[in-house]
Amino acid sequence: DCVKISTVYDAVKFADALILPIPMTRDQKSLSYSNELWLDDIVESIDKNENLIVFGGMIPSFFEEKLKDLSVKVFDYAKDEYYLQATAELTAKAFFDFIKDKRLPSLNNSKVAICGFGRIGKNLIEPLVRLNAQIQVFSSKSEEYNKNALPSVVFYDYKDAALAIGECDAVINTAPSHVL
C-alpha cells in the first residue's frame, strides 16, 4: 500500500527502516544535503520501537544514543570495516568501468597521479600496475608508504602534488577533502 507522506513524523511512523546518507550530517543538526530535515525532528518522531533499524554513515554519537534509548537498532556503515573495504573495491572497479564505458583514453603506459591513499587509492594500484602505468601517489603518509612501494609507484607528500601533477596524463582524486 502507498501512503502519502508529508511530514518527517509520517515517514518515521510507518517505517521499518530508515536509510540515512553518508555522512549522515555535516552540521550536527540536519541531515546531509538537506536544510529541512532536522535530527531532532527525526528522534522526536520515533516512538519506542524495537523493530525499527536506522542505517547511516558517520552517525553522531549523541544521535545514536537517543535512538538506542528508544530501543531502535542502529547500524553505522562507517564503523564496519567489511562494508568500508567492499565499498572501496566497488568504487575502484567503477572507476575503470567508467573509463571503458565512456571510451575514454586508456591508462596503458600512462603516468597517473592518485591523490589520497586510503582504501580506494590502495584498490586502484593493482589494476594500474597491470596497465603498466607509472603511478605517483600523493598522501599525508608518503614516507610510511615509500618504504614498501612497488617499482612503478612513487609516493609524495601532498605539498608536492601541485608541481608533479602537471606531468601526469591522469589525476584520480580519492581524498575526502581538497588537497590541491
- What string, H for helix and E for strand, traces the elements in order? HEHEHEHEHEHEHE
- Read across the widest sheet, the strand sequence of neighbours is 6-5-4-7
Average per-residue pLDDT, rounded, comes to 87
Class computed from helices, strands and strand pairing: alpha/beta
Radius of gyration: 21 Å
Number of strands: 7
Q: Would you mind describing this structure in some detail?
A:
It is a single chain. The chain is an alpha/beta fold. It has 7 helices and 7 strands, in the order H-E-H-E-H-E-H-E-H-E-H-E-H-E. The protein has helices spanning 8-13, 39-44, 61-69, 81-101, 119-130, 142-146, 161-165, and strands spanning 17-19, 53-56, 73-76, 111-115, 134-138, 153-156, 170-173. It has a 4-stranded parallel beta sheet with strand order 6-5-4-7. Strand 5, helix 6 (142-146) and strand 6 (153-156) form a beta-alpha-beta unit. Helix 4 (81-101) crosses helix 5 (119-130). It starts with 7 loop residues before the first helix and ends in a 7-residue tail after the last strand. The model has no long low-confidence stretch (mean pLDDT 87).
